[in-house]
Amino acid sequence: MNRPHRSRAEPGFQRKKSVMKRGIALALGATAVAALAAGCGSSTSKTATPSATPSPSASAPSSGTPATGAATLKVASSPLGQVLVDGAGRTLYLFQADTGTTSNCNGACAMAWPPNITTGQPNSNGVNASLVGTTTRMDHSTQVTYKGHPLYYFAEDTKPGQTNGEGVNAFGGAWYVVSPSGDAITSAPSMQSPAPSTGGGY
Predict the structure, then answer these.
(1) Distance (Å, rounded) from C-alpha 70 to C-alpha 151?
(2) Position 149 pLDDT exceeds 80
């Protein structure tokens, strides 16, 4: 006995076909969403990764104090005459507000006027060794003294031979370069006028 042929146009067949199409569309949509999310996650991780290399300026030293070691004192010529300098030729200053060998320059003052620090006994080169000494600062570091004056740099002296701190009045006192005798040089040496010509005529 032959079974009746089922037409594709019957309602049940059309319903199944519609369900299958809907399932395929949903599967394709889910795959697309997953791919898009993966792409976004990859992009975000690349842009959020910071650079591991620091900029050169970040590690540059800012202090004018020389490297730790035994300090050296010597004499150099300047527009102010013969003055005390360190081993690299940088000008040294005394602070008139200091009390004997005790430094009264700390904190912000010591940033503008870095102390001449030493490890061990300072070396003397062409200066009076009997005038060279040391003093202990508030932070327990050892500062070089000369004739009882704690010695300092000036932060705005950026290279050897500069004397930009001469005569500056700051942090409660005046600052001066130091002569080989250990005294403050408060003025430039006077220039001698050339002798007048005494050439005779005929």
Answers:
(1) 14
(2) yes
Q: Looking at 31-35, 106-110, 145-149, which range is the least confident one?
A: 31-35
When computed from its CA atoms, the radius of gyration of the chain, rounded to whole angstroms, is 41
3-state class (DSSP) for residue 78: strand
- Cα–Cα dist 31/37, whole Å: 10
- Residue 104 buriedness (CB in 10 A; 0-12 / 13-18 / 19+): middle
- Beta-sheet pairing, 123-125 with 72-78: parallel
β-bridge pairing 132-136 and 142-146: antiparallel
Look up the pTM and report it.
0.64
DSSP character string of 141-178 = -EEEEETTEE-B--TT--STT--TTTT-EETTEEEEEE
Question: 11 φ, ψ to 5°?
Answer: -60, -40
CA 155 – CA 90 distance, rounded (Å): 11
Angle, vertex CA 76, rays to CA 190 and CA 98, nearest 5: 85
What tokens appear for 33 in the block? 């969403």
CA distance 53 to 56: 9
Please tell me the predicted confidence (pLDDT) of residue 104. Answer: 98
Predicted confidence at residue 68, as pLDDT, reads 62
The two most distant CA atoms of the chain are separated, in Å, by 164
Which of the four pLDDT bands, split at 50, 70 and 90, describes residue 187? confident
